[in-house]
């Protein structure tokens, strides 16, 4: 009997320490009591933020419209493309008959993070694409990607965040060069693992020179979302963190600025 109780205890502790119960009521107490480290995965919005360099896209703008000195209240007005800074691509971004950003279920926006680091491979090849083999290799060390995970790709590209030209890395023919997910990796995650969404520390889940945006089509086509320009992925463990994703609620929107944070299990 004692043996059975202690085994149960060990299994509970194992689960707890590995973060699988990170959104249980016990862990929410820990979060509220400050026992968990919370990491902000969001860049602050400013005029230097990277955005998809498409026609009619423009930088973030902010203008003060009232000041305490003159008006007794401080207030501003801002504008930004939906696909600027840390943001979400809603399923309708690349596919018809898919939901807009305001329709994303809140349950889909919370889940365990699986963080895959390919920065070493990217250091030698800016056009590197995560392969299905990379994911399987990650799983050999970290266990299978859990049901309902959000997969985050740390390509190391975040080191260029403060320089938009280096970040989009256009060549003389205006082709962009930065890493992304491969078609095979996207198919593997959709067909073999029950993920809620994917994220990356670059401008796009498809690598820069993509012209068919196949990864967007695969992920959005399954009603899943994509997080882009995600910050601080180097500060996350490969697994054990719980993500909370809070997109702006633009009615009918294709995505938009999104606050994302990761809750680490209590030490
Ligand atoms: Zn986007």
Structure in words:
With 267 residues, this protein is of the alpha/beta class. The protein has one domain: Glucose Oxidase, domain 1, CATH 3.50.30.50. Helices cover 25% and strands 21% of the residues. It contains eight helices and twelve strands. The protein has a seven-stranded mixed β-barrel with strand order 4-10-9-7-5-11-12. Helix 8 links the parallel strand 9 and strand 10. It is globular, with a radius of gyration of 20 Å. The two termini are 29 Å apart. Mean pLDDT is 91; it is low at 1-26. Bound molecules: zinc ion (ZN). Zinc ion is lined by residues 83, 87, 89, 228, 255.
Task: Specify the oligomeric state.
Answer: single chain
CATH topology heading: Glucose Oxidase, domain 1
Query: How many β-strand runs?
Result: 12
Q: Profile the largest sheet.
A: 7 strands, mixed, barrel
Please identify the top-level CATH class.
Alpha Beta
> What's the SSE pattern?
HHEEHEEEHEHEHEHEHEEE
Structural class designation: alpha/beta
Based on the coordinates given, report the CATH architecture: 3-Layer(bba) Sandwich
Overall spatial form:
globular
CATH superfamily placement = Putative cyclase
Features:
single chain; 267 residues; alpha/beta; Glucose Oxidase, domain 1; seven-stranded mixed barrel; two-stranded antiparallel sheet; 12 strands; disordered N terminus; binds zinc ion
Task: Please describe the topology of this protein.
Layout: H1 2-17, H2 25-32, E1 38-40, E2 61-66, H3 68-71, E3 75-79, E4 87-89, E5 110-117, H4 119-123, E6 129-130, H5 132-142, E7 150-154, H6 164-168, E8 180-181, H7 183-191, E9 197-200, H8 214-221, E10 225-228, E11 242-247, E12 255-263
Parallel strand pairs: 5-7, 6-8, 7-9, 9-10
Antiparallel strand pairs: 1-12, 2-3, 4-10, 4-12, 5-11, 11-12
Helix pairs in contact: 5-7, 7-8
Residues 83, 87, 89, 228, 255 line the site of zinc ion (ZN).
């Amino acid at each position: 009997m004692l043996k059975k109780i202690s085994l149960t205890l060990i299994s509970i502790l194992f689960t707890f320490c590995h973060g699988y119960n990170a959104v249980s009521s016990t862990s929410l107490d820990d979060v509220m009591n400050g026992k968990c480290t919370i990491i902000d995965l969001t860049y602050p919005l400013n005029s230097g933020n990277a955005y998809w360099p498409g026609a009619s896209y423009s930088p973030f703008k902010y203008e003060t419209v009232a000041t305490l000195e003159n008006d007794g209240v401080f207030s501003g007005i801002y504008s930004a493309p939906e696909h600027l800074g840390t943001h979400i691509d809603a399923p309708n971004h690349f596919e018809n008959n898919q939901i807009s950003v305001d329709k994303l279920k809140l349950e889909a926006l919370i889940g365990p993070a699986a963080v895959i680091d390919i920065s070493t491979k990217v250091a030698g090849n800016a056009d590197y694409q995560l392969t299905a083999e990379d994911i399987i290799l990650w799983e050999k060390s970290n266990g299978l990607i859990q049901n309902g995970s959000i997969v985050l790709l740390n390509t190391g590209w975040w080191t260029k965040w403060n320089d938009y030209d280096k970040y989009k890395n256009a060549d003389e023919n205006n082709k962009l060069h930065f890493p992304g997910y491969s078609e095979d990796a996207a198919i593997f995650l959709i067909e073999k693992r029950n993920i809620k969404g994917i994220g990356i520390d670059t401008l796009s889940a498809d690598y820069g020179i993509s012209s068919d945006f196949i990864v967007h089509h695969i992920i959005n086509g399954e009603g899943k979302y994509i997080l882009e320009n995600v910050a601080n992925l180097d500060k996350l463990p490969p697994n054990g963190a719980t993500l909370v994703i809070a997109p702006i609620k633009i009615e009918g929107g294709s995505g938009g600025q999104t606050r994302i944070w990761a809750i680490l299990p209590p030490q």
